[in-house]
Specification:
The complex is a heterodimer of chains A (366) and B (318).
Chain A (H helix, E strand, L loop, with lengths): L3 E12 L2 E13 L4 E5 L6 H9 L6 E6 L2 E2 L10 E4 L11 H11 L4 H15 L14 H13 L5 E5 L7 H18 L2 E6 L2 H7 L2 E6 L2 E6 L1 H6 L4 H6 L6 E10 L2 E6 L2 E4 L13 E6 L4 E3 L8 E11 L2 E8 L2 E8 L9 E6 L5 E4 L10
Parallel strand pairs in A: 3-8, 3-9, 6-7, 7-8
Antiparallel strand pairs in A: 1-2, 1-4, 4-5, 9-10, 11-12, 11-14, 12-13, 14-20, 15-19, 16-17, 16-19, 17-18
Helix pairs in contact in A: 2-3, 2-4
Chain B lengths: L1 H24 L1 H36 L2 E4 L2 E6 L3 H7 L2 H33 L5 H8 L1 H4 L2 H12 L5 H8 L13 H29 L3 H10 L3 H30 L2 H6 L11 H11 L3 H28 L3
Helix pairs in contact in B: 1-2, 2-14, 3-14, 4-9, 4-11, 9-11, 11-14, 13-14
Classes of the chains: A alpha+beta (366), B mainly alpha (318).
């Protein structure tokens, strides 16, 4: 087990269309035994970062240290890492047993040690009956377990996982997610997990790194990322359905900061900034569960018209039209609204987010 | 009841529309319905019969006759030609030469072809151009290839001998194709050179679809370059190599023109392969029956080899 320090990591790819900055100035400390997720949309640099940690890619500049030891230029096999690939990358002509012990064999482990470790890993992952089968004869979930086993068997210092659950069907994915969490509880190895699925990142991680366009947007515990997003991108990327965003201005009226958007005026809490440091343009964000249906004559009520109402099991998502656009409201399933119905919305003032500007990198002011 | 009624109605409707179609299209429509499959199969079945089954059958039939070009009727000799054949040293000599010829050319084509494909799979500047150029020998007509190589091999003014002598590797020029010791390898080399691109192209295509993840997983597992080739590449291209070997074996065993044009089977019958023996019997001594008998034996030999191959291929679980 090891702590990982990523120092000013930079990676550019030269292609036909010029230079692509896959990763810009990534600095990150991962504690020993921590489960950290890199999350972001396609092309955000998360996989590049993981591949550099693995040694499959060399950085343009920057360093990687395991327990203070610089491993930036080491071959993957000399790093004592293990990796689980999205496609599992099991050797198709080898049996499960041969797949599991391949790494040990290449490192010259004696036969009895290999047999002992294979037995232990197979028992832990419950794949004993499949040891003499080939990957093609296994189901997706079983292959996934073999891939995990092949990584675990070498007792790596750092465990890297590249979208390991994305090839599984929805039900199995939830199941394997829980198994993965239990596995980390048991082995306590440092794990770096890449995913585009923010739910996986939220449920599994000690900390989450949100990335976009090769730049780290925010790093923090899942609840921090969810409740205090650092900028508009993080706010919109994390959470399903997305946070509602309303663009407008902030001004002060009678000593209280007010947000005004198209057809909306919201009184901001006292701790909100009185004026915006830059353009004066701002984005107000509120999560669907923090929008409530209120009486039409309630103070600050925002009139809206229901367009679509979706039942999602225990809750409902209502898409309502306001003057400036569309807002999603999350309610218990019992709250039934019909398309065309007129409602009034109230925003929970303690849960308002305010961003300086309207671009995706607009920083959060509260 | 309701579903049955619906079915009956559908059937009635279907029958009605069939009758309507028949009234409208007449005979053609009826034919189309009943014999469409047969009609569609007919062209390929006829082609198969005329171009494959008939010549093959006629060849086997001919091999039971002593038939001379001047006596096209011939005399039925039963298995006489085969008895002559199996007691003939020429035949056994040619069978040996043919086997070595096919074995050497196919073996070298596969080993060298895989090596070249691996090289061309590596990224380097101008790779596309080199990949195109590699096809060149395969695209050249055999006669041109033979003429070029006869010039290259020539003992008096051939470039190969010039370079060998000039660099001091040999003291005197070697008559590559007229020396019984070197002629076999001389023709083998041309056979390998000419058909190498076939192997390169197919192996290269297979290399390009091997998942990159496998190599990365192996690198992390601690496999070096040689281990990665043996444990991943070789297993991935194995099936393709088997098929290529099968195709090349059939082709090289039957190959006539390269050897015939380069040496004519000589010197001193050192390159007398079975196809050349067939030619010599059928068109040199005009013994069509004997020529046919050799060709029939070749045919069944290849069938035997193919059966072994297919048994081997089928054993693979995936």
């Amino acid at each position: 087990m090891a702590n990982v320090r990523i120092e000013r990591l930079h990676k550019e790819f030269r292609g036909a269309g010029g230079i692509v900055h896959a990763l810009a100035d990534l600095t990150l400390d991962i504690a020993d035994g921590e489960f950290i997720s890199l999350v972001g949309p396609s092309g955000c640099g998360k996989t590049t970062a993981l591949r550099i940690i693995a040694g499959l890619e060399t950085p343009t500049s920057g360093r990687i240290l395991f327990d203070g030891r610089d491993i930036t230029r080491l071959e993957p096999r000399d790093r004592n890492i293990a990796m689980v690939f999205q496609s599992y990358a099991l050797y198709p002509h080898m049996t499960v047993r041969q797949n599991l012990e391949y790494g040990l064999r290449k490192r010259g482990a004696p036969r009895d040690e290999r047999a002992r470790k294979v037995a232990a890993i197979a028992a832990m992952l419950r794949i004993e009956p499949m040891l003499d089968r080939r990957p093609l004869q296994l189901s997706g979930g079983q292959r996934q377990r073999v891939a995990l086993g092949r990584a675990l068997i070498r007792d790596p210092e750092v465990f890297l996982l590249d979208e390991p659950l994305s090839n599984l069907d929805a039900k199995l994915r939830v199941h394997m997610r829980a198994e993965l969490a239990a596995l980390h509880q048991k082995v306590r190895t440092t794990m770096v997990y890449v995913t585009h699925d923010q739910l996986e990142a939220m449920t599994l991680s000690d900390r989450i790194v949100v990335m976009n366009h090769g730049v780290m947007q925010q790093v923090g515990r899942p609840e921090e990322i969810y409740s205090r997003p650092a900028n508009r991108f993080v706010a919109e990327f994390i959470g399903t359905p997305s946070m509602n965003m309303i663009e407008g201005q902030v001004r002060t009226e009678a000593g209280r900061p007010l947000f005004t958007g198209p057809g909306i005026t919201v009184v901001l809490p006292r701790d909100a900034p009185q004026a915006l440091p830059s353009s004066g343009r701002a984005t107000l964000g509120i999560r669907p569960e923090h929008v409530s249906l209120v009486a039409p004559d309630a103070p600050g009520a925002i009139p809206a018209r229901v367009t679509v109402s979706e039942l999602a099991g225990p809750e409902r998502f209502h898409f309502v039209a306001v003057e400036g656009g569309s807002i999603i409201v999350r309610t218990p399933a019992a709250t039934v609204l019909h398309p065309g119905e007129t409602v009034a919305l109230g925003f929970d003032p303690d849960r308002l987010h305010l961003f300086d500007g309207t671009g995706e990198d607009a920083p959060a002011l509260r | 009841m309701a579903p049955n009624e619906a079915e009956a109605a559908l059937a009635r409707e279907g029958g009605a529309s069939w009758r309507a179609a028949r009234r409208a299209g007449g005979l053609l429509a009826a034919l189309r319905d009943q014999h469409l499959g047969v009609i569609l199969l007919l062209p390929s079945a006829l082609t198969f019969l005329v171009l494959l089954v008939f010549p093959l059958g006629y060849g086997i039939w001919t091999s039971f006759f002593q038939r001379h070009v001047l006596d096209p009727e011939g005399v039925w000799v039963g298995l006489g030609n085969y008895v002559w054949l199996f007691g003939n040293r020429e035949f056994w000599h040619s069978l040996t030469i043919s086997t070595f010829w096919a074995g050497a050319t196919v073996g070298l084509q596969i080993v060298l072809g895989t090596a070249v494909a691996l090289l061309l799979h590596q990224p380097f500047k101008g790779r596309s151009l080199v990949r195109g150029l590699v096809l060149f020998p395969y695209m050249m007509p055999v006669v041109s290839v033979v003429l070029v190589w006869m010039l290259l091999y020539n003992a008096l003014y051939g470039v190969i001998n010039y370079l060998l002598v000039a660099s001091g590797i040999v003291g005197a020029p070697i008559a590559w194709l007229s020396d019984p010791d070197s002629a076999f390898w001389g023709v083998v080399f041309v056979g390998v050179w000419k058909y190498l691109p076939f192997v390169v192209v197919i192996v290269l295509a297979r290399l390009q679809v091997i998942p990159q993840d496998l190599y990365e997983a192996a690198r992390i597992d601690g496999a070096g370059a040689v281990a990665r080739f043996l444990d991943i590449t070789l297993h991935q291209i194995k099936d393709v190599l088997l098929v290529v070997a099968l195709l090349r074996t059939i082709f090289m065993f039957n190959n006539f023109e390269i050897v015939f044009l380069l040496t004519g089977g000589g010197p001193l019958r050192a390159t007398m392969t079975l196809p050349i023996l067939v030619y010599e019997q059928a068109f040199g001594t005009y013994e069509l029956g004997r020529g046919s008998a050799i060709a029939v034996v070749m045919f069944f030999l290849l069938i035997a080899v193919m059966s072994v191959y297919f048994a081997f291929l089928r054993k693979e679980p995936d």
